[in-house]
Design goal:
Distance between the termini: 28 Å
Radius of gyration: 16 Å
Helix content: 40-55%
CATH class of the domain at 3-65 and 114-156: Alpha Beta
Length: 170
């Protein structure tokens, strides 16, 4: 049985939705828009301890289509001036040509969330506490975009997770 750790936004309130899909024996850590920088050594140590003690072999980054931070950034709303919002705005700026080709706002939300999840996976892969486990495939990284109101889940493929060897990872 796979022990899963979900990285979620506390404001998206997806924990019960995910429990209904994946069972009760799953774990969560939260951060705004599921953006984790893992810079605090004490926090890193606690997360690593959780992963080790609970035998976590799958980390799943989750964004819900209701995420107010993603939606506000796409609407160019001022927000709260958090570091997390800055990261979201940078993702928008870096991917503006792609985002502008999408006509429906909800589809733009999904695209930005996909970009956010892939960015987060890369941050984790490059982290000294997680990177080796991810590269060696002892911890699988996945992504989900959820839509609680429609009871829908989109799986996000993280390219380097299992299909690529260490020399061709992106």
């Amino acid at each position: 049985m796979s022990n899963k750790l979900f990285l979620v936004c506390p404001f998206s309130d997806v924990e019960n939705f995910l429990r209904n899909e994946y069972g009760e024996n799953i774990f969560f850590i939260t951060s705004i828009a599921a953006i984790f920088e893992f810079k605090d050594p004490g926090y890193l140590s606690m997360v690593k301890h959780l992963i080790t003690e609970e035998g976590i072999d799958e980390i799943i980054i989750v964004n819900d289509t209701s995420c107010r931070f993603i939606r506000a950034a796409l609407n160019n709303e001022s927000g709260f001036g958090t570091h997390y919002e800055t990261i979201i705005r940078q993702l928008i700026d870096q991917n503006m040509p792609t985002i502008n080709t999408i006509s429906e706002f909800d589809d733009k939300v999904i695209k930005l969330e996909e970009l956010n999840i892939k960015r987060q996976a890369e941050v984790m892969r490059n982290n000294h506490l997680f990177g080796n486990e991810i590269i060696n495939r002892t911890i699988h990284i996945g992504g989900l975009i959820t839509n609680k109101t429609k009871n829908h889940i989109i799986n996000i493929d993280i390219q380097y997770q299992k299909s690529l060897d260490n020399n061709t990872q992106k």
